[in-house]
Structures are given as C-alpha cells and as structure tokens.
Amino acid sequence: MNEAAHILVVEDETEIRELMALHLLRQGYKVRECASAEEAAEELKTRSYPLLILDWMLPGASGIDLLGHVRQSGSQASVLMVTAKTEPDDIVQGLEKGADDYLTKPFEPSVLMARVKALLRRAQMAEIRESLPRKVTLGSLTMNFETYELSVDGESQHLTPSEFKLLAAMIQNRGKVMTRDQLIDQIQGEGINVVGRTIDTHVFGLRKKLGSWADNIETIRGVGYRVRVEGT
Across residues 56-79, what is the average pLDDT? Predict the structure, then answer.
C-alpha cells in the first residue's frame, strides 16, 4: 500500500464524485469512479482495490447492499462510507455491516483525505503483521502475537490491550521510527479518545512494566518512538 494505491469511488452525484476523485488524484492515488452499486460490483470482478469509498443512497442497489456483497465475497478491502445518512442508528448499521469508517456529508476534503490515509496505513500494517512470525524473542523479552503473552526475564507481564498493540507494532517495525499518528492507528476502536499524549502515557506505562528491557524503546523527540535493533 502506498501513494499509488488504487481507490474505487462509488457515488451517484457527479459533482461529489468528481470532487473526491480530484482530491485523491492530487494526493497521488489512482482512482476509478462508479455511479452505481451494480457498476461497482462489475468493476470488482476485474480487479481488487485496497480501499472503497462508498455512498449509501445509490440508484438501484444501495451502498449497504454493495457492502454486504463485498464482505460476503471475503474481500479484505477497507471501506469508507461517505453518506448523508447522519443518524446514530445509520452509522451503527454501516459499521456493523462491515464498513471500516463512516463520514457524513457535507464533509471537509481535508477530513476525507485524513480518513483515507489512516485506513490505508492500517491496512498496510495489517499486511505486515500477517507476514511476520507469530512469536519473537529479543534478548530477555519474548512476545507471542497470537496468545497476547509477554514475558521478561522469564516472568509473565500483564499488558493492557492498548499497551500490547503498541509494543507489538514497535517490535514488528524495530529499527524504524513509529510516529505518534501511526501508533494511534494501532489502538483506535478502544472506545477512547486517542491523541499523541495518550500514546506517551501508554509508552510510559510500558516502560515501567518492561524493566531493564525498556531501554530498547527510544524516544525520537518530536516524532515518536523506536525499538532499537540488537547491536545498535
């Protein structure tokens, strides 16, 4: 996943669809536009897309119908619903049907772009996790990504779900700086307001639990954090 990612925009209002496509193209994405769920379904038979931007109210089959079809097909594409249906029950229904995010109209283009980038980053990180080993030992620390178990010097340590996700992301990307925005993506959906300061608090808690191994977590001032590669 990168700035050349292909994005499918499904929106029947021409002006809105073209506005979305314009801003996506300006960011370097490749865009395919569809004006109906039926047209989009045919397009999805010819190629896969990492991200779909989907309106709810479409001529013929609805966006929710298309979303159901996408999920039933086993597609792992991220889906961002952008719709004028703003009631809480509508948002809940969209997310429960399989949407990854929900943006109501009218929207600010900058907010749309931020949501797109966040979804693509999250998908990229998920792909990376799938390709990595399920268990890692780094010095005195052993981390099992499947069982959510962690031990330091042979002793089990209890981490909160957010702490575990953050440490897993840093270890899986060890040697690379993880920005606060990237780390925020790891714990979204926890029912909390995640901001940069929240990340700092979680890292502080992690360091207390990891003892001397915590020295491997480096603070990159003004950017984020990095787990040091052995020998550096």
Answer: 93
CA distances from 23 to 61, 113, 115 (A): 26, 8, 13
User: For residue 184, what pLDDT is reported?
Assistant: 85
**CA-wise closest residue to 83 among 98, 64, 65, 97:** 64
Structural domains of the chain, with CATH:
6-129 (3.40.50.2300), 132-227 (1.10.10.10)
Q: Residue for token digits 């809480």?
A: 88
Q: How confident is the model at residue 18 (pLDDT cuts 50, 70, 90)?
A: very high
Burial classification of residue 58, based on how many CB atoms lie within 10 Å of its CB (0-12 exposed, 13-18 middle, 19 or more buried)? buried
The residue-averaged pLDDT of 181-190 equals 73
Beta-ladder partners of 141: 138, 152
223 contacts: CB under 8 Å, gap ≥ 6: 177, 179, 180
Amino acid identity of 55?
Answer: D
